[in-house]
Each structure stands twice: as C-alpha cells, then as structure tokens.
Specification:
This protein is mainly alpha-helical. Helix content is 72%, strand content 0%. It has 6 helices and no strands. The longest helix has 23 residues. It comes from Xaviernesmea oryzae.
Amino acid sequence: MRLKSLVFAAVAGCLGLSVAVAQEEPQALRQSQMKAVGGAIGALGGIAKGQKPYEAAAVTAALTTISTTMKAFPNQFPEGSQTGSESEAAPAIWQNKTDFEAKAQKLAAEADSLLAAVPVDAAGVGAAMRTLGGTCSDCHQTYRMKK
C-alpha cells in the first residue's frame, strides 16, 4: 500500500509541477524540469552508492519522474526561446530538433523499461544509473552549453 501511495504522490507531484509552471516562460519551465530529473537521478545515485537505503517506492518514484518529465521536455523549446533566463540550451537544439527530441524520448523509454522491471537492490539501481547516465551525458554533450 505504501508503494502505491508513493507512486501516486510522485505522479501527482509531476502533474502539479507541470500545472504550476505551465504559465512560466519555456526557459524557466525546462530548467525546472531538468532540476526534477536531476533530483530523481540524485535519489537513484544515493541508493546505488549505499548512501540511502534501497526502497522500491523511491526507485519507482524517481523513474516515474524521469519518464514523465522527459516525455514533455522537448515541447519546452519553441522558436524564440533560445536565450533568456540564463539558458544553457545550445543552438544545436533548434538546428537538429529531431535528434534532440529523439534523445529525450530515448531517456523516457529507458525509464519506462526500468519501471517495467524495477531494480530490486542497490546493484540493480547502479546498473540502471549507468544506462540512464549514458543517455543523459550524450544529450548534454551535444545540446547543453557549459557555463
């Protein structure tokens, strides 16, 4: 029962976040979404490193956040939003939008696959992190400007 409650809370939180920031500029919204994904990756990393105890509900919530957020993420890059709000979005996003969107969807699909078979221990979470991290890194190297 606790697992269902935590998963429901995570999904509701993601939806609430989407509604709360829907009126913001796309730059602020995408920054908020990346912070949510970063928080989810951080939670998984804490489990993988043994800094936090393994809890299936926490793993499920983190993977749900990644999946949900990355499915909506590519929509936050309309023409004209290349700059502002200290954006780290590289011009390459708008030059190769199809590839950018594919990379975001790949991360969402990886999270969905992991949700279908949630890792059962810290070692499994570590393996999941390697899968997710490679996709994150690939996108960041191409589509994120270093400050």
